[in-house]
Amino acid sequence: MSNLAELLPALLIAAPILLATVPIVLGLRFDRTGWSVAAITTTALFAATAYLAAAVYETGRVVHVLGGWGEPQGIGIELVADEFSVLIALLVTVTAAAVLAYTRTGGPRGNTFYTGYLLLVGGLLGLSMTGDVFNMFVFLEIVGLATYAMIASGDGPESAVAALKYLILGTLGASMYLIGVGFLFMATGALNMDVLGEAIPQIADNGGSDLTLLRAAFAFIFVGFALKVAQWPLHSWQPDAYQHAPDGVTPVIAALVSTVSAYALGRIMYNVFGPEFLTATPYLTEIVVTVGAVSVLAGSTLAVIQRDVKRMFAYSSVSQFGLIVVAYGLVTQTAFVGAVIHLIGHGVIKAGLFIGAGVVAVGYGARTVDEYAGLASNRPFAAGSIALLLIALIGIPPSAGFIGKWYIAVGAVEAELWPIAIVIFLSTMLTLAYSARLLEKMYFTPATGVDSPHPAGVATDGGRAGAVSIGMLGILIVTAIVAIGLGFAGGAFFEWLEPFTSEVFN
Amino acid sequence: MTEIDMLTMAYPPLIVFAAALLVLVLPRVLGFALGALSLASVVAVALFAPEGAHLTGTFLGFAEIQPFYIDDFTRMMGVALGFLGTFAVIYAYSSEASKTMAAFALAYVASAIGAAFAGDWLVLVFMWEIMALTSTLLVWHYGGDAVRAGYRYALAHGIGGSLMLFAVIAHYAQVGTFAYGEGVDYADAVLAGGIADGLPLLLAVLGIGVNVAFVGFHTWLPDTYPRPHFAASVFLAAFTTKTSAYVLLRAVPEGNIYLAYMGGLMAVYGVVFALLQHDMRALLSYHIQAQLGYMVAGIGIGTTIGAAGAMGHLFNNVLYKSLLFMAVGVVIYRTRENDLYKLGGLWREMPLTAIAFFIGALSITAVPGFSGFISKGMVLDAASGYFGGPEHQALYWLLFLGAIGTFLSFIKLGYYVFFHGESDREVRDAKPGQTTAMFAVGGACVVLGLPAIGWPVFTDLLPLVDGAQFAGTDGLETLNPYSMGHLQDSAILIAISAVGFKIIRKPLSKLDYSDPALIVNPAMYHLGRGTMRVTTWTYATVDAAVVNVVTSCYWIGNNPVLAVDAAARRLPMVDVKEHRAADGGHPSTIHLRTGIGTTVLLLTILLTVVLWLLIN
Fold first, then answer.
1. Global pTM?
2. Stronger pLDDT, B589 or A77, i.e. the higher one
3. Number of domains into which chain A is organized
């Protein structure tokens, strides 16, 4: 058991990346094998992650040292599965497997798409489990490249432009991160997170030029991640990317790409720099909290004035990730747990909402808020699920959105940062505003007789128009139920993360 | 696990709430029986569960939650509410209450019991809000007049509940714990804990003040309680106000002299307005306020005897006030008449109801031998400084005046309903279930007042009193309700009242045939009207403004593009292009996009700022 568990972190990353070639190879002979390969792979990955989670639950963290490369220098390559990373890996594998239920008929199709899909999953799993800061950059780039390709697979020139914008800005963000890692290496001579986590407090105690290097490193890394996580005003790639990506791709990138980047930011802030460094450095927590709080307000305000539903959800992500960054900046255990819960909860909710947007676009031909009029009477299940997900997004208990926000709010109160409590309240109000617009259109505005200006959905490579399969609708409904069901799991999350948080916060 | 330990798992509110759900689905007899049984079991749990905090756990991330807390106080509350509740359900059963009403009533009782057993402020405030909700539903359920009164009731309790919620939040912010008895330490408190001094205390007293009907905050009480089904009134009369009085003691354990005088004022104000009523239940409702005045006074005085007297009066009040509502309910049930001047001579028609009513009346007026005599005596002793401690002569006389008024109004109520000529109608007496309920509760009132039999039981139940002894300001003191002095006071009281009623009966009855407010205080009427007009006008203005704001927000929400354009047009130096969509509808998107170059510029600026801040 333990041998297998120790192998799993490496397998989880290598398997999808290697298998990504299979659809292309098979594609030489068969037309449509990509979906099957992706389905089998993601399901197996999910099973393996669940097994790994069970092992972590029993024995604590599982470390896989690659290539037997030396411990003492602190530059060896490690993969770490602990409570925090396994949780994110579970989210990644579950979402990746679930969204396939949509893409089966909803598109996009083609073997190359599924190659990109598996590459993305491999990169995300690597990003979750990497134990050293340089490989984090490598996986960040793998994730980025796969994402650019998948966004560009949308039809029309706008997708290409959006992908290009993301490519340039995303690479810029990753470079910022790499510069930060360079400074870290200069100051400590180590890349391994554990070694860094022990070295940094000593350097902070000694002061001097190394401390300045550390602070510069933090500045570059934070700004790099602020772009990757789409914090205002560096978010500009994200609404375009989400809006113009194919409907089947948006759920994956919205639920996973920024989420795993935000997870990586949390990992760096808490495992590498550590709470002591964060609180001891002047202005540091203030900067983090300010960037997050401004994103919360700007993101939700921008969401309120959008007409395109997917774009509205995209701006909503800017605001929700702002909340997570705020929680990181509070540096309390409760707020940190709140951030993790909100990462997971928001991932599930947003995946569901974008699947919903796809289902409605394909089946009802509606893409703007106005066109959602009368959805409830025409498509009761889709409308009901979207309504449930919106309620979860607002954070009305019991729902996944509520517990995350609640813990973050409690953390803000514990840290006695009352303005943050007000920001959380305002964000709830603004979320209510844009959600209510959509709810009102779906449930209380009768459908207009005029035909929709948009043609009912045409799948990328000419699938049946207007067909919503049972799988597409089913996964939407299941996601909505999960989003509500997670609302009862607040205590469970707290206990699950207890070993990790108690170590980080001593 | 022994049987006693098992009791710590039996969370009373949950039992009662389960019964509330079952009442809906079971046959009527079975459902009501189960409801009564669940409440009887609450009495058992309250009596036998071991002391301490049970079922502690985490709620919404707060660790020290004690939903099921047993000490002398919660024990007494549990016994009182459970005992009365049992018979109130039986009474409701034979009073043709519907299953839905019983379900609402039981849910309401469950929340009140939950508030009584709470061991920390968070659970308390949670139950407090549910109690407001369920009692409103109980009122609304009756329909008709009750609906509008229910709205006003909900509004009052919404305000009170919010104040209480803010008080608890502020308390937590100040002391960092919700648990009773922790974090706060008042020097002269009769029990440990309380709400933190300053803003939290002020908010809590105001919030609780709504529920215990401080003068000025009381209007919901006589407004609401007379309107619903008469069996619903029995429930309403017992639970909200009494639970709140108990919570007031928890919140203000060291007393406050202003609070004490508010109690005295309530006693006098309540009886004066009770005397002027001719709706029987409205009269009883004003008496709730008056009786609460005694409890608030006892708590406000802040001595052991005061607090013990307040709690004793609370216990007795639960019993006799509900008994009175039951008896009056039977009269209403049989005669379909609410106005006491339109009744009379019912003594011959319904002797059992009359006996039950007079047991309640003798208890509330504190005649020796009945339960009210002991507890009211304790509060009066606390005010007069009988057992040492400060003397509050003015307060004593206020309370004494209240006692006279109580006498007068119950002589009035009893006289006009049961005597006063011959009855012009033939009605039957109470139904067996109603009789059982009335005499069970009435029996308790009598037994608890008897010197040799009930008195030890009563003092055992009372918190702060050990046997008949308690810790006074000058060492141990022994309670002696049947002393010469007390009996003398009582005799004087009865004599004054009997003579007084003779004198005021005529003017009072004349007064009552017209609208009392018009004759008693025309100024009040005009003042009220003026205030109403000003309020209405202000309301209309505010309403119009709010509607405008909401409408514009709604428009902005629905036409964000046009709104942004309109805002941009008002700015100088901004050139807004007309961009209409080809189909003549709304413009589809806003052109607020940031290009790649601008984003890189922003990134550089942000990085510079962060670096500058961190490295300087």
1. 0.58
2. A77
3. 1
